[in-house]
Amino acid sequence: MKNPHAVLILACTILLLSCNKQHDNDGIMCTTEYRMLTVSIKDPESKPVILSNYFVKKTSTGEIIDFATEDHFIDSVNRVQGIYFLCTDGMMGMTAKNGTDFEFHGILDSTEIVFQKYIIGNNRCHVELLAGKTAIVVGK
Fold it and tell me: Distance (Å, rounded) from C-alpha 106 to C-alpha 116?
C-alpha cells in the first residue's frame, strides 16, 4: 500500500458525507424515514374488520382528515388487513410536541362502530402516538 493513512482518511470522509440525516433549523438530526401511525381493527375471532368509511378528526378545530382520499391504493390495501391511518409525518404540522387530541371514527354500513380518542404529538422529526389504543376489537 502506498499510504494507508490516506485510504483511511478517504474512507472516513466518504462515510461522514454519506450519512443520510436531515438537519432542521434547531440543529436536531432527523432520520429520513416516513412514519405512519395506524390502528388495527379486528373482530373477536381476530379477523380484520373492513370499514365502509373512516376519518380522523382534530378535536380542537374539528378538522377532518380523510386518508382514503390521500392515497386510495395504500388505503385499500390496508383496509383488507383491518389497518387504518391515524396520522402521518405529512400531518405533523397539525400536532404539538406535547400532544394534540384526535378522534378516530370508524363506520360500517352507515353505523359508527368505532370511536376512539388519541393524543398525537411529535418530536420535531416524526409524529408520535402519546395515548390511545393501536389495536381495537369490535363486536365483543
Answer: 9
**pTM of the prediction?**
0.73
Domain ranges of the chain: 26-137
Q: Which runs of E-coded beta strand occur in 1-140?
A: 21-23, 29-31, 36-42, 53-58, 64-65, 83-88, 100-108, 111-122, 127-131, 135-137
Residue showing cell 389504543: 133
Sign of torsion over alpha carbons 108, 46, 116, 82: negative
Distance CA 89, CA 108 (A): 27
User: Could you tell me what percent of the chain has a pLDDT over 70?
Assistant: 78
Q: List pLDDT tens digits, range 81-123.
A: 888 988 888 888 889 899 999 999 999 998 999 999 999 999 8
**Average pLDDT over every residue of 7-26:** 48
User: Residue 98 has which C-alpha cell?
Assistant: 406535547
